[in-house]
Amino acid sequence: MEVQPELASGEVKHLQRCINDLVSLLALPAIWSGGDPSQLLHTLLDALVRMLHLDLVSVRLTDPVDGAPVEIVRLADPRGPMPSAHEICEALSQCLKENSQKWPPLLRNLMGEGDVSIVPLPLGLQGELGVIVAAAERTDFPRQTEALLLSVAANQASIGLQEARLLSHQKRVSSELDQRVMQQTAELAAANEELKRELAERRFVEERLGQGERELKRSEVRKAAIVDSALDCIVTIDHEGCITEFNPAAEHTFGYRRDEVLGKPLADVIVPPSLREKHRQGFARYLATGEARVLGKRIELTAVRADGSEFPVELAITRIPLEGPPSFTGYLRDVTERKRAEQELRRSEAFLAEAQHLSRIGSFSWRVATDEITWSEQLYRIFEIDRNVQVTFELMGARIHREDLSVLREHIEQSRRERSNVQLEFRLQMPDGAVKYVHVAAHVRGDHGQLEYIGAVQDVTERRASEEALSKARSELSQVARVTSLGVLTASIAHEVNQPLSGIVTNAGTCLRMLAADPPNLDGARETARRTIRDGNRASEVITRLRALYIKKEAAIESVDLNEATREVIALSLSELQRGRVILRSELAQDLPLVTGDRVQLQQVVLNLLRNASDAMSTIDDRPRDLLIRTEPDDNDRVRLSVSDVGIGFEPQVAGKVFEAFYTTKDEGMGIGLSVSRSIIERHHGRLWATPNNGPGVTFSFSIPCRQEGLTSNGTHASRTPSVSDAA
Amino acid sequence: MDALPRQAHCCVMELRQEKKALERPLVSVVDDDESVRESLPDLVKEFGFAVRTFSSPEEFLASDCVRQTKCLILDIAMPGMSGPDLQRELKLRGHGIPIIFITASTDKTVSPRLLEQGAIECLFKPFSDTALLDAVISALHPK
Asked: Which end of chain A is less packed: N or C, by CB atoms within 10 Å?
């Protein structure tokens, strides 16, 4: 064969290049190893375009291993807008399938109108992997070397893809395996946890079981100890009524030993013969019907001891809650003592109630913190309140006399504040208007917070009534005594004076009639006129006699402690003052000099002043009836005593008049007291006077010298003592 | 005489006329006070009646005047038998003599009780002659 040298040298170069390309292609798998198919195909297509000067090369993997189909296109020199790889691949495969030489318009647009040679290169043995399509605008395409390179490239790609596929499969399998291993590991771990927990639970349960057993044992020991040391008799019986347990207390109470009675029927041991039949019937009924009359209840009945003596017991029977035939526990207590105590208590309660009824004394208790008040039956009777009502202070308040309510409230509040025993008297007013006097004495018990008053309330209405009658009688008597001793009882004055007055009037009337007669009875008239004069003298004599009566008393002169004398008077009149609701305050000066005088007469003056002050306040209800008595040294070696009241008082212009005999502001007064008082004080060379207070009421004062320069004798003084009005 | 009401004066005149025809009615006075026993009979005589005085109820009861007495002027308070005691006693004996009580007491409360028991009047000393005359007239001429 004739070979031109130029041609030959070109041919050599071409071949050399072809061999280089082949080496490059064969080296590709080394680059590919581990890569994924798309990466692999990218490098392959780039190499093919460069080596073979292709105008277009595309690849489509028909059966991609994972996910979307791989379609890649390389164009050497695109001449228009680039369609997507997918569109190009679709157009190429269409053109290959129809086996037509007609170039699809899409590709024509891309590469121009010239002839294009297309070489499809199936991938895989049957093209199952996909196809590579190479195209060039050359008629000589593919030349021999180019076809060789293309087929080698396709083989290499097939191998690389297979490897990549395998690799990817392996990866997937291994990752699946990993996942499964992980999953199983997790499952195993969970199972392990479960096992651990079960184990712990089992251990716990076992521990509990052990503890339960121990506790059961302990509780049995404890129960035995309780049964043995119980103060109550504990007897257990089985379903036949035979004794299975008999504790020491039962031994002691019934007088049997435990071993004597175990196994014997209960009825024969502790039930009195008279009740045995009933006991047997009840027991039989329970076993037959389950109907129990005594179970779970506290009952009292009679039991019998070994020596045959019977005694009352309290009994409680319970069924032992175990399976099998029924058995019972009976708790028995000898209540002989208690019954006796109960009876005693009932008896003493009855005594107390009777005593309270008879003495009209009710008792109460008052818990200060809770205001819980308890009353005895008699107290309800005194207050005339229904026994079933719960007592409260409001309820009590409705029964307290209106005038005593505030004082009582004050006492209650004081008792609430401080621990102090109580002693007071107040009035109740019943719904029908009746007034009762009650005396309350209460003792305090407990500490603060637990303070309790326990006390007695006595209905002293009758005593009070008789006291009042007595005191009235006493005051009447004292008044009479005072009046008679002074000879100035108004009634007796009137009587004494009215007799002669009556004679005067009658005689004068007769005289007139005698003179008017026709002819006038002159002798008769003379006689009656004479009798008129005589009666006039008689009346005058009566008055003189009365005067003499009340100045006749002998004065007993001695040293007198006026404070002491005053205290005696206060003590004497205290109950009278209290009855008049007078609040007496005394301010007696210390170291008061003694006075010389008639102690009893001076005391009469003090008493008179106190009485007058009390009387002056008897109608005062809008303010406290305060009375102040004070003694003090006065000027010029004198001693002064004054009594202040807050009573009705008098007008200043009558201040002198009050000392006149028979002047009185009182409805029932005699008006003689002050005038006599003044004459007594004057006999002591002293002075008695009255001044209206700045506030309500009057102050009466007397002032007497301490040393009496020879107290005037009664005889010489008689003429001036009664002239009380002089001093006014 | 001017002090006397006209009606009373007429009565005196009438009585004076009566006394001419009849025996003068007897008025008895029982009082322990001597001045009363002295002065009252003169006045009663001036009224135109016969009069007897006694110092005590006992003395009056013992006398022979009980049946003839047409009017009794009786003191209340006396030692021994009192005026009301005599009033009761006379009633028991069946003598319905009209009684005029007189008293020196000032206690007015006794009056209604005595009037309730049938007394004609209760006069408190000192009383006027006309008050006594009115009482005696109503005692002798019950309405």
From this structure: N
Same domain, yes or no, for A429 and A477?
no
pLDDT of amino acid A180: 86
Q: Are residues A545 and A576 in the same domain?
A: no
Cis peptide before A120 (omega within 30 of 0): no
Whole-angstrom distance, CA of residue A442 vs CA of residue A452: 10
| A134-184 pLDDT tens trace | 888 777 778 888 888 888 888 888 888 777 777 777 888 888 888 888 888
Instruction: Say yes or no for a CB contact (<8 Å) between A499 and B128.
Output: no
CB distance from B72 to chain A under 8 Å?
no
Question: Rounded distance, CA B29 to CA B26, Å?
Answer: 10
Q: Is residue A199 part of a domain?
A: no
Query: A480 and A423 in one domain?
Result: no
B126 has a chain A CB within 8 A of its CB: yes
Q: Do residues A267 and A386 share a domain?
A: no
Range of the domain at A23: 12-174
The answer to whether the beta carbons of residues A429 and A402 sit under 8 Å apart is: yes
Give pLDDT tens digits for A369-383: 888 888 988 889 888
Q: Are residues A158 and A140 in the same domain?
A: yes
Domain count, chain A: 5
Query: A413 lies in a domain?
Result: yes
What's the CATH code of the domain at A426? 3.30.450.20
Probe site for chain A from B9, B44, B46 (most A CB atoms < 10 A) = B46
B126 closest CB neighbour out of A504, A510, A517: A504
- List A residues 515-534 in contact with B (Cβ-Cβ < 8 A): 516-517, 524, 527-528, 531
Distance from CA of B14 to the nearest CA of A (A): 16
Per-residue pLDDT of A601-660, as tens digits, reads: 788 888 888 888 888 888 888 888 999 999 999 988 899 999 999 988 877 666 666 665
Which of A427, A454, A481 terminates a domain? The answer is A454
Q: Which domains does chain B have, with CATH numbers?
A: 6-140 (3.40.50.2300)
Q: Are A303 and A407 found together in one domain?
A: no
User: Distance (Å) from the C-alpha of residue B89 to the closest C-alpha of chain A?
Assistant: 26
Say if strands B26-30 and B50-54 run parallel, antiparallel, or are unpaired.
parallel
Q: Does A395 touch chain B (CB under 8 A)?
A: no
CA distances from residue A603 to A563, A608, A727 in whole angstroms, order as listed = 11, 8, 21
A165: Cβ contacts below 8 Å, ≥ 6 apart: A37, A65
Q: Which of B9, B35, B100 is the mutation pick for testing A, counting most A CBs within 10 A?
A: B35
A213 assigned to some structural domain = no
Interchain contact, A499 vs B106, CB within 8 Å: no
∠ CA A696-A697-A701, nearest 5°, is: 140
Please say whether the beta carbons of A255 and A306 come within 8 A: yes
Q: Taking CA atoms, what residue in A is nearest to B123?
A: A502
Amino acid at A416: R
Tokens of residue A544, six digits: 């003189």
